[in-house]
Amino acid sequence: MKAVTVQETSDIRQTVPLSHLSVCKYRVTDEEAEDVTQLVESIRSFGLKRDLLVTPKSKDEFLIVSGHRRFWALKKLHLKLVPEMAI
After folding, report:
1. Residue 38 in contact with residue 76, Cβ under 8 Å?
2. What is the pTM of this model?
3. Which of 1, 18, 31, 47 could staple 72 via S-S, CB 3.0–4.6 A?
4. 3-state helix, strand, coil in the chain (%, to 5)
């Protein structure tokens, strides 16, 4: 079975305000998880290596499909805009 990368899923890319993204209410990872703290340091040192994968929720809002830990890490870094990929 071939692994599908984020880039193969969609080619619609945007940069949106972090405040326009929402987390699925069934998602387990929260912003206080230890691995999120480690991810903050990684993003600070090396940058964001993978986009967030989202789906439109309304005209200006998106629901995160993949990248919840990255979302929480970006919030901890106090970033206003985030690169994402809509599906």
Report:
1. no
2. 0.74
3. 31
4. 35, 30, 40
Report domain extents, the chain.
8-86
| Residue 38: both structure tokens together | 């480690």
Instruction: Identify the CA nearest to 76 among candidates 37, 46, 45, 42.
Output: 37
CATH number listed for the domain at residues 8-86: 3.90.1530.10
d(CA 66, CA 59): 20
CB 85, CB 9: distance < 8 Å: yes
Taking only the tens place, the pLDDT of each residue in 35-61 is 888 999 999 999 888 888 888 888 889
**Which of 27, 34, 43 minimizes the C-alpha distance to 75?**
43
